Amino acid sequence: MSIYTRYGDQGFTRLVGGGQAKKNAPRVCTYGSIDTLTSQIGFAISQVAKGDPLRQELIQVQQWVFDCGGDFATPDEKRPYKIESSNTEWLEQKIDDYWAAIPELRQFILPGGTPAAASLHLCRCLTREAERNAVDLMEQEESINLAALTFLNRLSDYFFALARWVNHQAGEAEILYENSRKIFSRKNDQ
């Protein structure tokens, strides 16, 4: 069996369920950006020591992100969607756990720190890009799994909290953005 089909030579790709779309269609851009994110998560995993429980956690997240991409590649629910609200609830619990274990954040920070944390910050950015693409797809009045959109929104928060936690665990100081106003505070605190 050959890896190439020549189907895409004219700028088209196949969707789940047998349909086709141009390679620059909003649906394809959405699941393409999720594919990029999936690869970046793989890189982040490579930055975590074997035997570290975080490695297995990130592999689970990577599995769900792959599922999420599949959901966005599926128009009109031609097969059952895989991402459900329980995936987002799991993320929320992890966010709460990591956020409780790190110092309070009162200013914006610059992404970076350890290689693992810097990689997780990049995952956060790629998640936001995928989310923007998903919103664009939705605005085109295309059918989407709304649970997958919510999952993407929470996933970026997960990567942010996790990147901060990884730096904190390593004793790596965060770099504060010099021109930052106070964040996560009441308006009258500013």
TrEMBL record:
<dbReference type="Pfam" id="PF01923">
    <property type="entry name" value="Cob_adeno_trans"/>
</dbReference>
<comment type="similarity">
    <text>Belongs to the Cob(I)alamin adenosyltransferase family.</text>
</comment>
<keyword id="KW-0067">ATP-binding</keyword>
<keyword id="KW-0169">Cobalamin biosynthesis</keyword>
<dbReference type="InterPro" id="IPR016030">
    <property type="entry name" value="CblAdoTrfase-like"/>
</dbReference>
<dbReference type="GO" id="GO:0009236">
    <property type="term" value="P:cobalamin biosynthetic process"/>
</dbReference>
<dbReference type="InterPro" id="IPR029499">
    <property type="entry name" value="PduO-typ"/>
</dbReference>
<keyword id="KW-0547">Nucleotide-binding</keyword>
<dbReference type="GO" id="GO:0005524">
    <property type="term" value="F:ATP binding"/>
</dbReference>
<protein>
    <recommendedName>
        <fullName>Corrinoid adenosyltransferase</fullName>
        <ecNumber>2.5.1.17</ecNumber>
    </recommendedName>
</protein>
<keyword id="KW-0808">Transferase</keyword>
<comment type="pathway">
    <text>Cofactor biosynthesis; adenosylcobalamin biosynthesis; adenosylcobalamin from cob(II)yrinate a,c-diamide: step 2/7.</text>
</comment>
<dbReference type="GO" id="GO:0008817">
    <property type="term" value="F:corrinoid adenosyltransferase activity"/>
</dbReference>
<dbReference type="InterPro" id="IPR036451">
    <property type="entry name" value="CblAdoTrfase-like_sf"/>
</dbReference>
<comment type="subunit">
    <text>Homotrimer.</text>
</comment>
<feature type="domain" description="Cobalamin adenosyltransferase-like">
    <location>
        <begin position="3"/>
        <end position="166"/>
    </location>
</feature>
